[in-house]
Amino acid sequence: MKSVRTLFVIAAIVMGGALMGAVSSLHPFGVPSPEGCAVDEHYLNRAGVDLSCENVVTSIVFDYRGFDTIGESTVLFAALLSVMMLFRKGGRKQ
Amino acid sequence: MKNRSMRPLSVIARTACDMYAWFMVAFGAYVIVHGDITPGGGFQGGAICATFLALMLVTQGSAYVSAWLNENFYKVCLFLGLFMFIGFGLMGLGWAMDGTLMLNWAAVAHDQLAEVKPWWPPSGTVALMDIAVGIEVTGGLSLILVTMFRAIRLGTVQEDGMGKETGHDQR
Amino acid sequence: MISANLPYFVVVVLFLIGLLGVLLETNMIKIGIAIDVMESAANMFLIVLGFREGGYIPVKFLMPAGTENFVLPTPQALTLTAIVIALATSALMLSLIVVLYRHYGTLDVREIRRLRG
To answer: Can you give the residue ranges of every domain in chain B?
Structure first.
């Protein structure tokens, strides 16, 4: 059992090294590229003018991307349904 | 027969809970309603409102909460919130000029705000859907807590009203 | 080289702590907590990606005079959905642990592999 645990630790360290190498080739922290921010600039410029809603994050969640919020409600319902199904005291017919 | 369900905490903890529990619901409602001005909104405020039931379960014990709890209230909250949310989304099909689905049909633009003066909040469906989602998440998370709590009761139902207290050195 | 991208490395360290917890622990509840730590590290990575220097929070009428830059709002909106999904998976994991404990009588992962009850 001991040898399997050292193998797990070595595999985790290798994966950590790969993740750190991948992360250091991203854009530097705090300076995103202007082509990547084009959609966000559109939301920031238009959110207070079109909708009169000052909170840009809430207007993205409920108005510009409202279908994702429907999906999130579905996930909440699915979690509730599966928890209720696991703890059911059904009468089993013997 | 030993009772193995959750026991209430001491008198000090129960008194502090009694003073404090309903203010948490008021703070959660504040976070829900002010969703279009400050950071916050429906999901965050609903999670704050659901911790009221968690506080009552931990401090008052299972006998008190089982006698007091009404599960149908949370089911009504859950389905009412969901139907309000979908209703506000689908109402844009008939009433708006272009017939938009799920887009903000009740919003008033910034430059028209001086003339139109609506009686609903000028951010439109963002404020209304906030309240609907807040009610729905409160009901849903409280129902998850109640279902998991009812499943872990291992012993028999006790005869007296309150069990022996736990949390200090009484055996 | 590292100090320019330091928040990214902190997120990777947090993810590795959760991963080592899943691989090396034998108590089932601790494995569930470590999975939750990994999900929180992924959410934190999303928020760290959307930072702009000199920016303020994206609420328009709260900004003090003189700032023109806002932080990017879209990763914050996506993180809200991801947090709710992490909550749903933790609730389901804890319920499965309760059912497993009732069936086998133990919380140790090594015993469950042997019993085959």
So the answer is: 11-151
